[in-house]
Amino acid sequence: METPFWLWLIEGPFWLIAATIFVLGVGWRLVSLLALGRRRDLSVPRGSAAGGALRAILLHFIPHGGFFSSTTFHVLTGYLFHLALFALLLFAAPHVTFLEKNVLGFAWPAMPRWAFIVTAELAFAGLILLWARRISDPVQRQITDGGDHAQLWLTFAVMLTGCLALEEASLALRGLHMVMVELWLIYFPFSRLMHAFTWALSRGAMGATFGRRGVMP
Amino acid sequence: MSATTAAAGAPAMGGARAKEQAKGGIAPAIEALKGKIDSTVAAQLEACIHCGQCAEACHFYLTSGDPRLTPRHKLVPLETVYRRHMAPFSGLARMFALAPADLTRADLEAWAELLYDSCTLCGRCTVVCPMGIDIASLVRLSRAALVAADLVPESMQAAADRAVAQGSPLITEEVMRRVCAAQEKETGIRVPIDKQGAEYMVALSAMEYLNFYEVIGALARIFKAAGIDWTIASKGFEATNIGYQMGSDAIARTLVSRIVDAAHDLGVKYVVSPECGHAYTALNWEGPNMVGRPFDFEVVHILELLDRLVREGRIRLAPDETRRVTYHDPCQISRRGGVIEEPRHLLRALGANFVEMKRHGVANICCGGGGGVSAVTRAEERRIAAFACKKAQIDELGGIEGLVTACANCRNVLEEAIDAWDMELPVLGLTELVAEHLVDEAPAEEAGAPAGAA
Ligand code: SF4
Ligand code: SF4
User: Fold this and answer.
1) Count of CB atoms situated within 10 Å of the CB of B411
2) Which chain B residue shows the shortest CA-CA distance from A131?
3) In angstroms, rounded to a whole number, what is the distance separating the alpha carbons of residues B102 and B99?
4) What pLDDT digit, counting tens, does each position of B209-236 carry?
5) Where are the domains of chain A?
6) Higher-scoring residue by pLDDT: B92, A169
7) Whose CA is nearest to atom 8 of ligand 1?
8) CA-to-CA distance for B418 and B89, rounded, in angstroms?
9) How far apart are CA B287 and CA B225, in angstroms?
10) Closest Cα of chain A to B305: distance in Å?
11) What is the structure's pLDDT at A3?
């Protein structure tokens, strides 16, 4: 089947533009963040800053200090959503093909259709639970802003259109999914979606400070 | 014109000028925050996913259920300034009216209660935060805006003014000399003041001189037994640093410089940081950064020193403490200072029936009055209420006969709260406990010249 012009536009130039904005935007944001510099710490270290940074990066993947019982919902829904999302991103058959054709030039085994459906359901469940808590928990309502909702709904739209486009039966649905992905990529560097990169910087900076003090909160 | 005057004058003026004036009023606060934002602060503000888990760690939220006391929410002024003025793309965001509205004096007035009364800078929220955000540090930095806007709580400002004027927020040099002389008399051991060339200089906290002065006699006995040559400096006798707590760089530097200069003038090798949480952070971890150069002496925490003396056999302790005790970790010494095992070694050396609270060490729960909160009179009710978290920990253990700690401020706050909650529980200072169990104490020498004449 010949690719219609509008789909060519979406998957060709628009994709390139979105991907470029994503890469340059993320790069610019990270570089300007690091360019703010960090004051040299003149205190006498008791331990290693680098070791502390690494420890904090690893340690904060799972709750410690006895907090699992009070954060079980956050932890489980958070991991459920993120792990399922990454699995879909990397192993959904159309993604493997798309990445091979447009980005990487090589492929790897994709997940079977049944696994896609289960994983997608898990990802939706995770996202919906995270959203439900965001709108119902007084603490989260207090600290939630428009950006949190925007990125959540945009991600939801990407996932939903992705599921609709799975059969690749309709070019329109495939195009719609691509448009949502492109919007998501363009929005990414300007939003809190950047936490996908800043998590390591934040944990690392804290870990470096306390690593020098020989302790790890 | 101070920020207060500017804001007070604004309503009387017309339109643009009033706006301009109001902007002038808030400008120093905004500049103060801008000056605090480096890559660490930025990365931490950027990484927050607004998940709210930090609330689960904060004794102020846990005991009130008030979502405004969520640790992350306390950072709104800092975040506003970052996102409006300093974040990547903030120019673009301002151009398209997507940046948050600029900080106002009303915002700061509303946040003074959150930043000064409702955060002990305990850092427990960092433990639970999936992004490892050091909220305590960011709260402390945020206080700089309140300093710039003249919004420091009155009682705290008064304590700072006294510290600058008389060398301590609670006492004068003369009182210090009197207390030391009384302890000399009590113990029969000399308490040297301004001894040139002593190896160790001890700075104590105001609360110790005023309320827990037996610690001075305890130190005299321990140091005598260990053969340690020590002194207190009349120019740097106070270890606490209210400037550090209130977020005033200028006052913090002035206060820490007194210790640094006194240590330099006396030519000591070590400065002993006492049983005081923030004094240790302010001197050891932040002191060199405040004065802009490494120290020409070593800072040693009293718990590290005592532990070392026991391990090296320079003092021997009778392991005959029979009481069932638990240890309250002062946040700045344990979680934020890294001195966690030393007090436990000491307690075991005393033979105490020592039991740990369920959350201890890095995960300990604050006394409720750290970070300057105990200096904020209007926060008293909140502080006492926050003790419920600590009380639950102690009650859970059951049969505790002594609550040992190593911070005079914790000790005072805990004693007040224990009283307010109608509990019976002695709060014990670890240094004093160590002195009580000394064996092979050398016979008391005749106290020499009066304190201060060394
Ligand atoms: S540092 Fe302590 S008091 Fe402050 S917000 Fe965090 S948990 Fe609460
Ligand atoms: S726990 Fe950490 S990431 Fe979550 S809201 Fe609090 S500060 Fe932000």
Assistant:
1) 28
2) B51
3) 8
4) 999 999 999 999 999 999 999 999 999 9
5) 68-140, 145-217
6) B92
7) B58
8) 51
9) 30
10) 15
11) 84
For residue A39, the CA-to-ligand 2 centroid distance in Å is 24
**Closest in B52, B88, B124 to A29, CB measured:** B88
Do A202 and B359 lie within an 8 Å CB cutoff? no
Q: Which residues of A touch B363 (CB under 8 A)?
A: 64-67
Which residue minimizes the CA distance to atom 2 of ligand 1? Answer: B122
Tokens 């977020």 -> residue: B247
Give residue B250 CA to ligand 2 midpoint distance, Å. Answer: 31
Question: Which pLDDT belongs to residue A205?
Answer: 97
Burial of B360 (0-12, 13-18, 19+ CB in 10 A): buried
Question: Could you tell me which CATH number the domain at B14-151 has?
Answer: 1.10.1060
Contacts of A190 in chain B (CB under 8 A): 89, 93
Q: Are the CB atoms for B114 and B69 separated by under 8 Å?
A: yes
Interface size A-B, in CB pairs within 8 Å, comes to 177
Reference B74, options B59, B102, B55; nearest CA is B55
What is the mean predicted confidence (pLDDT) over B163-180?
97
Q: What is the pLDDT of residue B1?
A: 33
**Domain assignments of chain B as residue spans, ordered by start:** 14-151, 156-311, 324-436
Measured CA to CA, the distance from residue B309 to residue B270 in angstroms comes to 14
Q: What ligand has the least distance to the C-alpha of B58? A: 1
Alpha carbons A44 and A103: distance in angstroms, whole number: 48
Q: Which of B37, B68, B86 sits opposite A142 (nearest CB)?
A: B68
Radius of gyration of chain A (CA): 20
| Fold annotation for B156-311 | Glutathione S-transferase Yfyf (Class Pi); Chain A, domain 2 (1.20.1050)
**B431 alpha-carbon distance from chain centroid:** 18
Contact across the interface for B337 and A209, Cβ inside 8 Å: no
- Residue A47: φ, ψ to 5°: -140, -170
Quickly count: other Cβ atoms within 10 Å of residue A131's Cβ. Answer: 18
- Mark yes or no for CB contact A143/B72 under 8 Å: yes
The answer to whether residues B317 and B439 touch, using CB atoms and an 8 Å cutoff, is yes
Sign of the CA dihedral with B176 first, then B178, B181, and B185 last: negative
- Mutation choice for ligand 1 from B78, B111, B117, B125, CB with most ligand atoms inside 8 A: B125
Q: In angstroms, what is the span from residue B120 Cα to ligand 1's centroid? A: 6
Q: Which residues of A touch B55 (CB under 8 A)?
A: 139
What's the distance, CA A187 to chain centroid?
A: 12
In angstroms, what separates the C-alpha of B85 from chain A's closest C-alpha? 13
CB contact under 8 A, B293 and A213: no
Cα–Cα distance for residue pair B432/A5, rounded to 1 Å: 84
Q: State if pTM tops 0.80.
A: yes
CATH of B324-436, one of 2.30.30, 3.40.50, 3.30.390, 1.10.287: 3.40.50
Rounded to the nearest angstrom, the minimum Cα separation between B188 and chain A is: 37
Q: Is the ipTM of this complex over 0.90?
A: yes
Asked if residue A30 has pLDDT above 80, the reply is yes
Judged by CB atoms closer than 8 Å, whether chains meet at B50 and A140 is answered as yes
Residue B444 pLDDT > 60: no
Contacts of A52 (CB under 8 A, 6+ apart): A207, A208, A209, A210, A211, A212, A216
Phi and psi based region of residue A39 (left: phi greater than 0; alpha: psi -120 to 50; beta: remaining): beta
